[in-house]
Amino acid sequence: MSHYDIQLLLTALVSVLVLVALIVSRLRVHPLLALLIVSIGVGVATGMAPGDIVKNITDGAGKTLGAVGVVIALGAMLGKILADSGTTEHLANAILRRSSDRMIPWAMTLVAFVIGIPMFFEVGLVVMLPLIFSVARKLESREKFKGSGYVYVGVPVISALAAMHGMVPPHPGPLTAIAVLHTSVGPTMLYGFVAAIPAMVLGGPLYGAFITPRMNVRPDAALLDQFTTATSKPADAPQSAPSTGLGVLSALLPAILMLLHALAEVLLPKDSGLLHIAAFLGNPLIAMLLGVVFAAIFLVDTHGGDPEQLRNALGQSLKPIAGIMLIIAGGGAFQHVLTAAQVGTAIVHMTQQFHLPPLILGWLIAMLLSVSTGSATVGIVGAAGLLAPLVGADPALNVPLLALAIGCGSLFFNYANHAGFWMVKESFGMSMGEATKTITVVQSIVSLVGLVMVLLFDLLPKLG
């Protein structure tokens, strides 16, 4: 490990500390400005040319907005339609009516578990936000409830979505590890499903119950009203209302399309025409777009809705999330600059000096790369590529478990250089400390429990 590697690692560490200081100190710098300032600082400190600094910032911001921003915008539109049609209200009432206060987090975990099977973390969260806010708002109105209902309901959802995202194919992380390590989807998926259950339980309902009385979190009023307040119809408008079943179908349609794509990838040959169709329809952007169009037609137009009022509502739905998307883009810029500075390479050089069992080493390398660069994908690709030679050299190695260990490691300590951190922080109106206590700690719990499950599985006979 060279002196330059040490310098890169120190630069990455200092950059995160400076970022936090800018946001939480008396300066109270807006997160977007702080992210851009620190990104420039990292570029200068690592010797990047000025043009490369600008290019990396714009590439990182653009890539993140392209992958996440448009989907978040479509999710906000879908959430607005569901709220205005009364669907979110009906679902929230159903959960509250059929669940005691203690059982609500478990019910939300189950919903997020199902939603999280095909959906990326950020996509699943934006789809779940209307239901989280509606249930939490009603829960907080109960006299006996203490603490933040938004943490109580939101933490289980974050835990379940994170567990599915990092552990279970067809999410890109596990699939990437499977491809690089040349192992099978089936055993990895089975291991992932089983490992995800205790991980999301400990990181979700149990941790959520512990942290809720200690936090007082409330989302921005505009975002909260958008996702929880139904728009009343004019007195002369038709009063027919969409059925709850149709509303649920509208809410789940993107997830259904993504799930069909996932099943097609497993069951159909790669040259199948049906697979290409499923891949197109199951792309997060296309699936969310179809969900919005379906909801607009069947929840609004066919029930006497005013097209002009719908258009205005969809336009209004984007205003509360505009700031969130830009901050997420700033996080993407920060992550891209760290990656371009070769911080990941320095981590790889450091881990080559370790002498650990492959499963633990895979988890550790993925964790260090993900934490330092802000990219779970970098963590997974780097760890899988580094350990791929072991697959042929060690016949006793359980390769599906190695893929799972790498996926679990990529989840650990989701913090300020991750786009998901900023999405949770800004969506729930949290401070840096509150976001750390939620998404950062939750994903760390999920990651560590996943590693424990991997080591336990390794004591059993191999699958497949």
UniProtKB/TrEMBL annotation:
Its main location: membrane. Belongs to the GntP permease family. The chain crosses the membrane at residues 6-25, 32-53, 104-129, 149-168, 189-210, 246-268, 280-300, 320-348, 360-387, 399-417, 438-457. It is found in: Cell membrane. GO terms for cellular component: plasma membrane. Keywords: Cell membrane, Membrane, Transmembrane, Transmembrane helix, Transport. This is Gluconate transporter. One of its GO terms (molecular function) is gluconate transmembrane transporter activity. It is a multi-pass membrane protein. The keyword Membrane applies. InterPro entries: Glcn_transporter. It comes from Candidimonas nitroreducens.
